[in-house]
Every structure is written in structure tokens, then in C-alpha cells.
Amino acid sequence: MFTVDTTAVTFLTLDQPRAETDFDTKAPKLDREGRQVFSLVVMAIAPGFKPSQIKVKMSTDPGPLAAGEKVVFPALIAQPGSWPGDKGATASRANYLAPKGVKAA
Fold it and tell me: Which of 23, 39, 22, 36 is nearest to 94 (CA)?
């Protein structure tokens, strides 16, 4: 697990945030502190790299967001994984989404 420096990365939303649910029970997914988990699909764009679509999970409701809206993740954590069929897959998690108008440090 490692923290990603997001200062040179632009994140654009591709869809509305969604509350995560358990596949079988459809019950809301909760984090270790009992807070609802939300996911947000974004396009990550960084100079010199191919744009990548990533799904970021967070334990705070990011509120309504429009497709194509620029968002900032001041603390993005990536966890490399190995799932069958995925080469170099990474899970991404943000502790929070910065308020609108806040720029990465």
C-alpha cells in the first residue's frame, strides 16, 4: 500500500458517486469505523502518461457531482493487487474528497 502524489494529476468524474453494497445481501458496505463506503469512477490524467479510468472508494459521501467535473484527492492510497485475469490491478482509496475549489498541495 502506498500514497499517491496527486499534485500533477487531474481527475475528472465519469459518473455520479455510488454507495457501495454487498453483492449477495445488497446491504450497504461499511468501513472499519462503521461509515458507509462510496465509490467514484474518475479519469486520471497526468503529463507523460496514458489517461486511466480508476474507481476510488471513500468513506465520506462526496455529494452530487456532474460528469466531467474536476475533483481533487489530497490523500489517495493505492494498493497493488493480483486478481485472476488482472495484470497489475490496483485498488484505490481516498480518505476524503477535497471541497470544491481546493487545489492539490
Answer: 39
